[in-house]
Amino acid sequence: TAITEALAEIKTNLARLDNLVQDYLSLVRVAAIQQTPVDLGRLVTELAQERRPALAAHGITLQLEALDQLGMVALHAHTFRRALLNLVQNAIEAMPQGGTLTFRGRRQDAAVHLDVGDTGSGIAPEQITQIFEPLYTTKPGGTGLGLYIVQEVVAAHGGQVAVQSTVGSGTTFTLTLPLAEA
Question: With a cut of 70, which residues of the chain have pLDDT below it?
Answer without folding.
Answer: 25-32, 182
